[in-house]
Amino acid sequence: MNKRNKNKNGKGVLSYFKPYIFMAIITIIFVASAALLNLYLPNLMSDIVNKGVVKADTSYILSVGLKMLFFSLLSALFGVISHLTSAKVAASYARDLRTAIFNKVTNFSLEEFDKFSTSSLITRNTNDIVQIQQVTIMMMRMVIRAPVMGIGSIVMAFSLNMKLSEILFVSIPILIIGTILLITKTMPIFTNMQKKIDRINLVIRENLIGVRVIRAFNKEKHEESRFKEANEDLTKTALKVNRINALMFPLMSFIVNFTTIAVI
What we know:
This protein has helices at 3-9, 21-53, 58-106, 110-115, 118-125, 127-140, 142-160, 168-209, 211-216, 220-245, 248-263. The protein is mainly α. Mean pLDDT is 83; it is low at 1-10.
């Protein structure tokens, strides 16, 4: 490949995201706004109990209740819009990456083709792009929403009762450390799983291309055994990583419940 083609096709992955930065920012604004509205709802509920129920003030309860309904609907609207825009951004970004990879591969020299297997190139342009698309959606939704909710909750907790909120200095570091340990444990397994996806794609491709030869030499059982071995190997790895990830939500629930009990 000449230098001109290398410079043209050698753009970084993030550079293809530039056309969608504006829409991504809009998505982040809607996600953050929905999170802030959700944080404000408990304050309104507290006002209903403390100022409306205690004093038997029906008009106040209705007034604040309507305000809660309005903010809830507004939060739901922001959530729907953010989901639509994030899906649009991620899908368009994935489309551009697939196109770029396809154009890059078609311009490979013979020497460069020797560095990659065909199954690996197929995986990169299918499964890997899907993974990037899903991560993009998560980054714009959960990764933005979680810090807003977390920081906002901490600020509100300390503003309401400084002494009871001191338990957060214990629970939050434990939660962060546990999450980091789980991520550190699963990342190498995810890398290994990508290689096993390459392997199963290789077996399938060889079977499809050489189906006549396989039948001519009566090698169906051998090829079924190869596929079964690759499939079971991938399945075991996927189950392993999912079992580790399954610890995330029980860990979060345990820490949240422990914090609630400690406060009570």
